[in-house]
Amino acid sequence: MSAATGSDSGVGAALTPPPDVASPVRHPDAPAPGTLLGAHYDQCFGCGEGQLHGLHLEARAGEGVTVTAEFTVRPAHQGAPGLAHGGVLALALDETLGSLNWLLRVIAVTGRLETDFVRPVPVGATLHLEARCTGVAGRKIYGSAVGRIGGSDGPVAVRADSVFIEVKLEHFTKNGRPQEIKAALADPDQVKVARAFEVNP
Ligand SMILES: CCCCCCCCCCCCCCCC(=O)SCCNC(=O)CCNC(=O)[C@H](O)C(C)(C)COP(=O)(O)OP(=O)(O)OC[C@H]1O[C@@H](n2cnc3c(N)ncnc32)[C@H](O)[C@@H]1OP(=O)(O)O
């Protein structure tokens, strides 16, 4: 893996899956549709409950390899006065798309994320997100997501296409800080993470 060396592998790679891409396969032990997925890490800025100003995004398993998620824009998430920061909205999309990997039982990190900002999202609004895996090609996991204001049939505010790259546990142990890794592994709420590591030794 060339992650720590700053390789430009994948730079400019396509966000749409190649025509011969394999259909994503929902893992037999994936949580049932409707199940709240919970945080993958308490300190994650996207989903962790331990992050005061984080998004506290809540994702649920959908049918196949799809997820739905919600997050409510709070004052700490502003860019322009009264409006969500675009980076925060990209984070919500990233986090939702990343949740798909739990249904595949794969550990993966974002390689590319292309976001369309369609309309502003005010503070107090709840963003309803839907993401689906559109294909898997080797270690590359393609996804697409949309976020709507106020409800699952509300107006589209943001869209994204992504490529996540499957990694091994050493991606985190080599590149992360030992104290956080130790804390994450010691957290009893991280059982899901431990299970993920078992299928991705
Ligand atoms: C123990 C503690 C607990 C931890 C608990 C963990 C729980 C699990 C949670 C995970 C966290 C989620 C959080 C939300 C999701 C983030 O936000 S993740 C954070 C943001 N992303 C990153 O930091 C990733 C940084 N980049 C990297 O580390 C490396 O560039 C990567 C992505 C691992 C790739 O490096 P590499 O493994 O050396 O890749 P390489 O072998 O060169 O390429 C493999 C394939 O991928 C393609 N590729 C590589 N890079 C890219 C790219 N950027 N774009 C497109 N394609 C690419 C290549 O073209 C190649 O394709 P093929 O030739 O096979 O067709």
UniProtKB/TrEMBL annotation:
Its EC number is 3.1.2.2. It is a peripheral membrane protein. Residues 1-33 are annotated as: Disordered. Keywords: Apoptosis, Cell membrane, Cell projection, Cytoplasm, Fatty acid metabolism, Hydrolase, Lipid metabolism, Membrane, Transit peptide. This is Acyl-coenzyme A thioesterase THEM4. The keyword Hydrolase applies. Belongs to the THEM4/THEM5 thioesterase family. InterPro entries: HotDog_dom_sf, THEM4/THEM5_acyl-CoA_thioest, Thioestr_dom. It catalyses: tetradecanoyl-CoA + H2O = tetradecanoate + CoA + H(+); (5Z,8Z,11Z,14Z)-eicosatetraenoyl-CoA + H2O = (5Z,8Z,11Z,14Z)-eicosatetraenoate + CoA + H(+); hexadecanoyl-CoA + H2O = hexadecanoate + CoA + H(+); (9Z)-octadecenoyl-CoA + H2O = (9Z)-octadecenoate + CoA + H(+). It is found in: Cell projection, Ruffle membrane; Cytoplasm; Membrane. SUPFAM superfamilies: Thioesterase/thiol ester dehydrase-isomerase. The keyword Kinase does not apply. Residues 82-140 form the Thioesterase domain.
